[in-house]
Amino acid sequence: MWQLADPGVINPVTAADAVAYEIDNNVFQPLLNFDYRTLKLVPILADSLPQVRADSAGHMYITYELRKEAKWDNGTPITAKDVEFTFKAACNPGVNDAPLKTTLDLLSDLILYPDNPRKITFVFKARYNLAVETTGTNTCVLPEYAYDPKKYMEGFTFKQMLNDTALAHDPKMMAFANDFNSEKYQRDTTGVNGSGAYQFVEWTTGQRVVLRKKRGWWGDALAGTNCFFEAYPDKIVYQVVNDQTTALVSLKAGNLDVMKAIKPQDFTDLSKSDKFTANFNTLTPLMFAYTYLGINMKEPKLADVHTRQALAHLVDVKRIIQDVYYGYGQQVTGGISPMDSLDYNSDIKPYEYNLDSAKALLAAAGWTASEGDGILYKVIDGKKTPFTIDFLVNQGADVRKKVALIFKEEARKVGIDVNIVVKEFNVFQGLLKKHEFDMYTSGWVFQPGQQDFKQVFYSTSALDEGSNHEGFGDATSDALIDSMRVELDVKKRAGMEKRLQVIMHDRCGYIFLLAPKALIAISKKFSNAYASSNNPFFWEAGFKAAGEK
Fold first, then answer.
1. Burial, 517: exposed, middle or buried (Cβ in 10 Å; 0-12, 13-18, 19+)?
2. What span, in angstroms and rounded, lies between the C-alpha atoms of 288 and 532?
3. Average pLDDT over every residue of 252-273
4. Region 106-125 average pLDDT
5. What is the C-alpha to C-alpha distance for residues 214 and 280, in angstroms, rounded to an integer?
6. Of 291-295, 410-414, 441-445, 510-514, which gets the smallest average pLDDT?
7. How confident is the model at residue 465 (pLDDT cuts 50, 70, 90)?
8. Residue 408's pLDDT is what?
9. Rounded distance between C-alpha atoms, residue 281 and residue 224, angstroms
10. Which of helix, strand or coil describes residue 293?
11. CA–CA gap between residue 131 and residue 123 (Å, rounded)
């Protein structure tokens, strides 16, 4: 199975990349997850979907009971104490999990039940539309005995972890964090330990990560319950090939069984090859995802809304879908999947590709054609400033670079000079976090169901630890996001989401492009290998040898 890069870590609390997420899904287990077939929320470690109630003060209570069959590798039962430990670890101030911490800000306490060690209640200080997903799907449960053998965290309550700022300097808290952040619990086969069907047995950097099926795995007795209790291969190998062309050659030669994120042109060629299709199935599910161009709204050249809207009129989305994505995508106007018919605002008219409209908006923003080179300029802070854009692209992302080249071509027609800057992925990510760019292109992949927009679109998420790289947001949009987070009526919340999409469209910090299709090839040596719109777009543990019952 092909991967473009190594995972950052193999630890569901500190993981922050798609490769780690895919591997973690087979090594660890959450309470709930979205079934790859039905896209519905289903219980995994929990024995059913949780009970949800609210009191007159607005607090929410999410109560789970764990499956009686669930066991750790040492044979001991998985209990509510392990769930509590996992969430305490996530809230430890020294643990490197800033993105996860931002999702837990509405939690106020955990309740354990001495008469039932498998029961746990999460208490939220306010209503939260994603309370079930936050507690059930956001992270997998870790065994306390394996990840805190020195019992550093045992004497602290979850409520303390949330409220006691002095814990940031507590010696036990820091000792636990140092251990937890260490290589032992991030990539060492002797330290990584979960309740999933597969044991992590090898990581050769830049080459492969190997998982091996556990003998006597507790979940085998529940086969057929949902897709997460399908675990058939004896071994799953994630083969790292950091060049897509090389990976494609390996796929054609039969040295790879599965490849996703195939380049659109290559995928089109493969689908037309009788030799290839005799050995591989090609699959194209629409992803819960969108691609976009991000604009640094805090950059003085780009601070004026008319300037940003002019840039949107330079983007020929239809051409990008046809010429870059070979038709494997659907145009979008906001940060919500068009498959979500309730929340997606289909009334928003996309910015039309129109050079005249772009020129008029640029003039309204004060940009003037200079003599000689034809590049626009504007006096900003008393200085004549040429309209040049550094357009950031991560290395190896050929599709994104093609999008940037199309934008560069169109921008030149109206007097804007675009410099495409290609950076290695980790450098690219660092520049985004520090807001050291003018524009870039990227995308977000998300789960089915409702979303929490705070991490990406809230104004304070423009800080280093957030993902609001564009600097979008003000009191109005923040208040709307806050209201959405506590609104449990799905229809009322859908109206709020549609209003947020209008605000984002008008302020144009993002130029939304398309919801892409996942372009996947899976060897015909496997049966039960179906495609899904849910990332990573198939459930590899469910693959069977062709003909196997």
1. buried
2. 10
3. 94
4. 96
5. 28
6. 441-445
7. low
8. 98
9. 24
10. strand
11. 9
